[in-house]
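Lab notebook, design round three. We kept the backbone fixed and only want residue identities now. Task for the bench partner: fill in a sequence for the structure below.
Input structure tokens:
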């Protein structure tokens, strides 16, 4: 047996021994079976070039480090997903009043992690914001109108995203970001606007991908803003933030539109130095970690990954090796068995687990994602990073409350 002791062999020597093992193994064999037969785990694997770059700088800010400037101001979320935005507002001291989410698995995650929250969604309610009459009927007994708090919502962004656009055939009717022509998701922004106008929250936040701002030269978003302005809101110019500028170890652009019927002016937060992905990936999740199932790659896939340098892409698998000293590329809604992909660990030639992606998104390690692994990836990849949400929530509180 090979029986490499990782502590006694250099990364270079380990790579050569592991490469020899790969060369002898069946290319379509399960890498975990192959490496475990040698007394190791997949996390003992190394790249041809390993440990050449490290991150020795700051860690991402913890949610507990944010000042409680929200002072109990109530907040209601729509299109809540697994709760990234809600966690940020909670960390800043806002009082969670209700969440609306139509995906039952996502609702389960919310209820497991925050049993005290009022989660409106399957199997008990619909949670579908497109059914505005139902949403208004469900929320009316919970809050007063006008609502002296904040509404936050990120209408599903698939019709506007570049990633979605790339999945469509260039000759197909969905090419060029169909956006609001989409029968359902493209109209959810206006459903949210209708709910805002009905309940008159003191402030609101619309979150989306930058593509919403640019669609049709901004015509659709401008129409939504015009409706809100006519309802008495001062609406700030849409701003595109990169999460990496605010303490998240990941490049991730999101657009925010903030409005209020109160006095005050929303100001952009001060940017921070970027934090490398190694800040949260250098220490592996422990054996009892939540959501840390790693993908069982084939030998041929790992053999390709092992020779990638930092920041390079495996063209066949379309996965990128992360660089420890730089923020991660955008975490996407991938999965362990198709339906997407996650990036490659910077020092282990395998894709990231849900927990590792959640760390890049700044979710706490004790936050649990429910459902099949592929759906766990979807929840994490679609979320607003909680630290970014807390940064936003801080500025909302300072501006209007």
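Proposed sequence:
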């Amino acid at each position: 047996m090979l029986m490499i002791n990782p502590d006694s062999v250099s990364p270079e020597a380990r790579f050569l021994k592991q490469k020899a093992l790969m060369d002898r193994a069946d290319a379509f064999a399960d890498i975990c079976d192959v490496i475990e037969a040698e007394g190791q785990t997949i996390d003992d694997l190394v790249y041809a070039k390993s440990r050449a770059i490290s991150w020795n700088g700051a860690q991402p800010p913890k949610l507990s480090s944010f000042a409680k400037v929200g002072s109990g101001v109530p907040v209601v979320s729509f299109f809540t997903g697994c709760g990234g935005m809600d966690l940020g507002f909670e960390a800043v001291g806002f009082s969670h009043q209700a969440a609306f989410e139509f995906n039952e698995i996502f609702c389960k995650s919310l209820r497991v992690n925050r049993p005290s929250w009022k989660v409106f969604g399957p199997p008990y309610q619909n949670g579908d914001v497109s059914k505005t009459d139902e949403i208004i009927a469900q929320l009316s007994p919970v809050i007063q109108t006008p609502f002296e708090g904040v509404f936050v919502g990120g209408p599903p962004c698939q019709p506007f995203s570049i990633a979605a656009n790339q999945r469509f055939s260039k000759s197909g009717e969905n090419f060029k970001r169909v956006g609001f022509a989409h029968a359902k998701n493209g109209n959810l922004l206006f459903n949210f606007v209708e709910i805002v106008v009905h309940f008159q929250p003191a402030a609101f936040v619309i979150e989306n991908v930058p593509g919403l701002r640019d669609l049709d030269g901004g015509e659709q978003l401008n129409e939504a803003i015009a409706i809100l302005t006519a309802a008495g809101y001062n609406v700030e110019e849409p701003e595109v933030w990169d999460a990496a500028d605010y303490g998240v170890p990941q490049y991730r652009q999101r657009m925010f539109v903030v409005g209020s019927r109160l006095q005050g002016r929303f100001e952009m937060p001060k940017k921070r130095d970027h934090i490398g992905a190694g800040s949260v990936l250098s220490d592996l999740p422990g054996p009892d970690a939540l959501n840390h199932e790693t993908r069982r790659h084939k030998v041929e896939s790992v053999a390709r990954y092992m020779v990638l340098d930092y920041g390079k892409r495996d063209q066949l698998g379309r996965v990128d090796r992360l660089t420890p000293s730089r923020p991660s590329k955008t975490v996407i809604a991938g999965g362990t068995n198709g339906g997407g992909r996650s990036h490659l660990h910077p020092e282990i030639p395998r894709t990231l687990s849900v927990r590792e992606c959640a760390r890049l998104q700044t979710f706490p390690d004790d936050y649990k994602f429910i459902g099949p692994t592929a759906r766990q990836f979807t929840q994490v990849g679609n979320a607003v990073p909680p630290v970014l949400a807390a940064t936003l929530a801080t500025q909302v509180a300072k501006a209007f409350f």
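Keep this in mind before ordering anything: Residues 1-5, 158-180, 335-339 have pLDDT under 50 and may be disordered.
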